[in-house]
Write a structure and sequence with these properties.
Distance between the termini: 30 Å
CATH topology of the largest domain: Alpha-D-Glucose-1,6-Bisphosphate, Chain A, domain 3
Largest sheet: 8 strands, mixed
Number of domains: 3
CATH class of the largest domain: Alpha Beta
Radius of gyration: 24 Å
Structural class: alpha+beta
Shape: globular
């Protein structure tokens, strides 16, 4: 395999991701030495962008709880040998971005070692500057440069780079930096200023909040923020970092994970439950009665909070949000709703773009739980999402009201489901030898033509991703979105219906179309 392929296959949108723990089932694709080449290329990129030599760059490195974190960090240190490195230890992804804007740290850039919610054997890299997360094109260029460095200084086995042979660069240094303490202090200051409690420094006194950190990096949120502000955190679970994730997948979209925080909330009799993913950039909550607040419901709660201080603001969401949420945002709250594309960077960048054009957008959020606020540098931060809700809960409590009121007026579909159609590789002798991206794009185009020709199909416009169709007839009311996966050889199909049994009707209506394609297989 060529060097360029070894590195380019690690790109997952804006992030580097690969298999970092070897096993008979899955061979390693991201090694310590590959991380070294990538970090070295990143330093080159940053030095050129900043207009100063590498030895003057201050770059922070943090990691989540994954078992491969020490190895990947060691690789980054080799690659950054000519820079001033600050080791931040166990940290959340949002805190690593904040490290570039805090006066106490003011790093030129930072690297977060994480693979988010993926299994224990995965790991990866996220890159930040003061402008935010690395853009896709910039990461592509860095990986190309890493391949060039590997070609010059490395050696290659059949599967991976096995040696980092670049000489250490002069002028570098390594020090430790307690970033989590700085992050917690800023977060506590924010809560105090927002709640304005009589006991100013303990505005959460009287609230019982439990946390499920999924054995990831964000367990510090319980003691360093909630308890320090006066909250009772008894009943919190899985706060200790454990990169094998023995209790559940650290993912607020996962049913088992959400059931875990639901159970913890009910068992403790808590006012609120909070759950994060492994690196803390996504979150969700559970109300005291055990009702889960994620996806559309999470967006609705946050929008209600924003509407009080920024009436009429635009909320940018991804493409799979419900019609009921759109009605809630526009009719109940009087806000604007832009349903955009999947991918948290797509959503966030659209929010930034709208503000640059003079349109107020205070929140850009994906249904996965990636949410970014204008007043927080458009950084997707699960802790900040939770804090927004907790601050509102504290203020409502003073008025004798409950946080559940924020969902008043939100209707929900009777059925919501997703099927994923795997795009099979072309078989030997098949006439159609197109790769999965080209094949999938043709399926989407064909579905658009199919939908336009069907009397009961109403193609939704404007629409920014795939083909969205609404149905409003005596047999069924609802919608379907057919789109292409951002990274995988799949076509996700999202369906929602306003009445029980409606999803099956919609499935039946589109089945004749999908039956045409021998390379599509439902997972």
């Amino acid at each position: 395999m060529q060097f360029e392929q070894l590195f380019s296959r690690l790109q997952n949108g804006n992030d580097v991701r690969g298999i970092a723990v070897d096993s008979p089932e899955e061979r390693i694709t991201l090694t310590e030495d590959m991380a070294a080449f990538i970090a070295a290329a990143f330093a080159r990129h940053m030095a050129a962008a900043a207009g100063k030599p590498e030895k003057e760059l201050r770059i922070g490195i943090g990691h989540d709880s994954r078992v491969s974190a020490p190895s990947i960090q060691a690789g980054c240190l080799k690659g950054l040998s000519g820079t001033q490195v600050c080791l931040c230890g166990l940290a959340s992804t949002p805190s690593m971005f904040q490290s570039t804007v805090y006066e106490e740290s003011a790093f030129d850039a930072s690297i977060m070692i994480t693979a988010s919610h993926l299994p224990y054997n995965r790991n990866g890299l996220k890159f930040f500057t003061r402008e935010g997360g690395m853009e896709k094109d910039a990461l592509t260029a860095i990986l190309k440069d890493a391949a060039s460095l590997a070609k010059e200084y490395g050696t290659e086995d059949e599967e991976k780079i096995i040696a980092y042979g670049r000489p250490a660069q002069a002028g570098g240094s390594v020090e430790e930096f307690d970033l989590v303490s700085v992050y917690c202090r800023h977060m506590r200051d924010y809560v105090c200023s927002q709640v304005q409690a009589e006991d100013y420094e303990h505005p959460l006194t009287g609230l019982h909040i439990v946390l499920d950190a999924g054995n990831g990096a964000a367990g510090f949120f319980a003691g360093g923020i909630l308890e320090a502000l006066g909250a009772d955190i008894s009943g919190s679970v899985f706060l200790e970092p454990d990169g094998m994730f023995p209790n559940h997948v650290p993912n607020p979209e996962n049913e088992t994970a959400m059931e875990a925080i639901r159970k913890a909330t009910l068992d403790a009799g808590a006012d609120l439950g909070v759950i994060f993913d492994c690196d803390g950039d996504r979150g969700a909550v559970v109300f005291s009665d055990g009702s889960e607040v994620n996806r559309n419901r999470l967006i609705a709660v946050l929008a209600r909070i924003i509407s009080q201080s920024h009436p009429g603001s635009t909320i940018v969401t991804d493409s799979v949000t419900s019609d009921e949420l759109a009605v809630f945002l526009e009719k109940v709250l009087g806000m604007k709703h832009l349903r955009f594309k999947r991918g948290y960077k797509n959503v966030i960048n659209k929010g930034i773009e709208l503000n640059a054009q003079g349109e107020d957008c205070e929140l850009a959020i994906e249904t996965s739980g990636h949410g970014a606020f204008k007043d927080n540098y458009f950084s997707d931060d699960g802790a900040y999402i939770s804090i927004k809700i907790i601050c509102e809960m504290a203020k409502l409590r003073r008025q004798g009201r409950k946080i559940e009121e924020l969902l008043d007026g939100l209707d929900e579909p009777a059925q919501a489901e997703e099927m994923r159609l795997r795009i099979l590789p072309p078989g030997e002798g098949d006439e159609d030898q197109r790769d999965f991206k080209e094949y999938g794009a043709q399926v989407i185009r064909d579905f658009g033509e199919f939908a336009a020709s069907e009397e009961k199909f109403h193609v939704v416009q404007p629409n920014y991703e795939g083909v969205r169709v609404s149905f409003d007839d005596p047999e069924v009311k609802g919608w379907i979105l057919v789109r292409q996966s951002l990274h995988d050889p799949e076509i996700p199909v999202n369906i929602e219906a306003k009445e029980e049994g409606g999803a099956a009707v919609i499935r039946a209506r589109v089945k004749p179309f999908f039956d045409r394609y021998c390379r599509l297989q439902e997972k």
